[in-house]
Write a structure and sequence with these properties.
The chain is of the alpha+beta class. The chain is built from one helix and seven strands. The chain folds into two domains: about 70 residues; about 70 residues, SH3 type barrels (Roll). It has a five-stranded antiparallel beta sheet, with no helix packed on it. A two-stranded antiparallel ribbon has the order 2-3.
């Protein structure tokens, strides 16, 4: 009888250990599955990174090609013609530019008078302008298209 009680006690004690071992084995199995899934996901992400790096290399090489272009848009330059100061008047509302073929910086109304000492084939430099019948010096580079103005002596 003692032997039977001892056997039951030993089996009960080992049953708890067997359950713990079984639980640990299940946890390890789940961890292995999670590890495999995470490795697959990591591989997918690495492929995406490689693809993006290749696209970046292509984009940078293209931008370098554009920057190193030795023949950017060739333009025929207008030759500046210097002459005596003349007074001009705008035929119509006209755009005012910051340089020849530059950015539009404003618009003047029809009939505005201005003076100039320099012009190109397509633009006239505004050296001064009349405001309330008072002449004011232009303090920055102002240009108007030739077709928008006429000499004040002519009509």
């Amino acid at each position: 009888m003692k032997f039977l009680l001892l056997l039951i006690f030993v089996l009960t004690a080992h049953a708890d250990d067997i359950e713990r071992i079984h639980s640990i084995v299940n946890d390890i199995t789940k961890l292995r599955m999670d590890y495999k899934k995470s490795q697959e996901r990591l591989h997918e992400c690495q492929q995406k990174v490689r693809t993006l790096e290749n696209q970046l290399k292509i984009a940078t090489s293209l931008s370098k090609i554009k920057d190193n272009n030795t023949f950017p848009k060739l333009k025929m330059r207008d030759k500046a013609i210097y002459k005596k100061a003349a007074t001009y008047r705008l035929k119509e509302n006209a755009s005012i530019y910051d340089s020849v073929d530059g950015e539009k910086i404003g618009e003047w109304t029809k009939g505005t008078s201005f003076t100039s000492t320099q012009r190109t084939q397509r633009f006239i430099l505004i050296t001064g302008y009349f405001e309330n019948r008072q002449w004011r010096k232009a303090h920055r580079s102002l240009w108007v298209r030739v077709e928008d103005a006429f000499k004040r002596d002519q009509k």
